[in-house]
Amino acid sequence: MTASSYKIRTFTCISALALTIGLQATANAADKPVRLRLSHNLPTTNALHSGVMVPWAKSIEQASEGSLKVQVFPAQQLGPAKDHYNMARDGIVDMAFYLVGIEPGRFPIVSAAEIPFSVSDNGKGSRALYEWYQNYADQEMGDVKVCTMFYDGGGTIHSKKKIESPTDMAGLKIRSPNVQAANFYRLAGASPIQLSASDAADAVERGVVDAISFPWNLLSALGADRALKYHLDMNFYSLGTAIVMNKNSYARLSDQQKAVIDSHCNADWAERLPKAWYDWEQEGRQALMTKSDHTLYTVPSEKEAEWKAMAEQVRAEWQATVDKTGADGQAIYADLQKRLDAYNAGY
């Protein structure tokens, strides 16, 4: 290649690159600024807000070069937690953080993710959850865009006495976080009560409940640790969560803006999102370990089979419910377990 031809080729490549960059810049400049409202149910002191929702929203803004601004509304400012799916569906908000098991019976397939002793790694488990539910999202949540899904920080049983066997729950009133945990408690002879986190903490103070299913840090944050001194030291359950988006809100975006949203609505983000939340809850566990008047205990090895057998009964009840809808519950659950095992995230 002659020097002159090399210069011509180099100039052509540089010109083409400059043209591409220019066209991209023009396209981005043409994007009209859009403000998206994202609602969730927890206070700003919770890691869901500061460690999950806010960083995710800022990443979207940065990736869109400022054309997308996600305004986060915490603490149920725009509506109660149980209404968040409908709020996104109806356009009351553009995006909503939704607890997938908060409305018993509404989304039976996805509730498989909340059967006790399902997931051991909330990050990799969240990737498995998101990928698994892609096969069923249109069937159950077809009136919204299911942006991403992930597990919460995990939770366990906090009580006024040691609960080493499911039979130890007999006669107790226990706050349940979702229908699957409630079924577990019912089968164990307890009386499950569904309450919001703040109401549950108040119920403990008033002696209305004997135990609660709670994450670690939230227990102390709401003051429920003043009455509950015994803590089952295992990840008994994890809540399935989703960020759902109004379909019209997504449709009105430019192609470039849609691409930004899509790049934040995937398995990679599903795995990343729960880390700060999980770490924050574990800080609460470590803090309780330092308090002499609190007892963290594990299930005796000879009792482990009892817990697993009870969870299997919960799974069987879930399968029967799903089968009644015409779906194949056994195959659906096997698919979830296969994906969890592929990431070494099964219990």
UniProtKB/TrEMBL annotation:
The UniProt record lists the keyword Ribosomal protein: no
Residues passing through the membrane, by range: none
Swiss-Prot/TrEMBL keywords: Signal
Keyword Signal found: yes
Top-rank lineage group of the source organism: Bacteria
Pfam families for the chain: DctP (PF03480)
Signal peptide (from-to): 1-29
NCBIfam families in alphabetical order: TRAP_S1
Name assigned to this protein: TRAP transporter substrate-binding protein
Organism field: Alcaligenes endophyticus
